[in-house]
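haha ok so turns out i had the wrong file open the whole time. this is the CORRECT one, sorry everyone. sequence first:
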Amino acid sequence: MTRNEFYGEVNFDGLIGMTHNYGGLSFGNIASANNKAKPASPKNAAKQGLAKAWHLARLGYKQGILPPQERPFLPILNKLGFNGNNQQLLQHAAQDKRLLANISAASSMWAANAGTISPKYDCKDNKTHFTPANLITNTHRALEAAQTTKMLRTIFCDEARFMVHDPLPNQSLFADEGAANFMRMSKSHGEKGVEIFVYGRDGFESYSGKFPARQTMQSFEAIARNHQINIDKTIFTRQSKQAIDAGAFHNDVVASANENVLFYHEFAFENEEALKREITQKCDFEPVFIRVDNNDVPIEDAIKSYLFNTQILSKPGERMTIIAPMECYETPSVKKFLDELITRNTPIGAVEYVDVRQSMNNGGGPACLRLRVIMDEADIKSIKARVMLDEGLYSDLVNWVDKYYPETLLPEDLGDFSLLENNYAALDELTKIMHLGANFYDFQK
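then structure:
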């Protein structure tokens, strides 16, 4: 296979928005519930996310940035029967704090939920396929799908290289949470791989549990068909109900894959042994299974620390590096496991700790913040928007955050019209910084 200068994984991190707050909107997300109504710092949150992304860029990994969405999202209020100018619409929403919280959530920061991506190496038409997630389980997240679709089509605009599908139908049968429930294994990123779709429930079954199972089998079956993946290189497996009820609302809270490595908790899957057999059968390389026993890291510690929501990153000729949140360092069982892991004979040889506490407090670790896209150099060069992180873009974004972002924010502050005006001015400037084109956001039309 002919190679360009680069082929591999590009991480596109979601830039945390100005309405970042602890609204406690995500049922089943323990961190989100535990920090509900506490003061948040949008400025610190955005800077922490940018610092993590810039750190990886300086380490030599390809790194992109995705813009935040327009929030509060007033167009939905017109569809709900409210009328008036922007100030009047916001006043209507502010009369119901629950409604206001849902239309104001900065949850698009967790770009792992933006969609499911199959690299061209896996697809019959040799295009990279994207399906934006409909995220219908939670109201605040379901508002993201249309803007996510437009964003992906703006950035990945070369239709000869990329295919951005419409989101799946907004029906419970096709509930889709994106790449947070998707894994891919391959000998190296730029080669054909095996795509692993992890669902929480069969959409036709009567499901009951402590927390909802957000991803259906039917949604992933539809995505696999639309992405034109060879069925012989496709696996559908079920996340365990035990993990979901413990607070693993997405599979990436209890399992992760990178190239030939599957890194997972003992309680991650409904049928662990069957999954391992199928992976072994369908891979044309030797898979490495790194299982974390509950006796070593109780599932409560794994979820609290986001051990599996770390980023596992590859460089040619080097062992893999785990990028972990500081909470992993501060959780004794997890720290002990990671210290021992890098001494073992596995592909993982290093751990680095980063501070993303503002995101962690809302239930999103380092891996939640990024969307993984396998690309080559020509793919990257086809992007017209200014989203690939370099020193100039990093500096511009930090200065932009300093200019517009509030130091602190409480859920009750979201009804302040001056905050909305500030957000519009900021996003208008951001479209110019990132070369996103005219009328990227609804308010600009």
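The two ends are 45 Å apart (CA to CA).
again sry for the mixup
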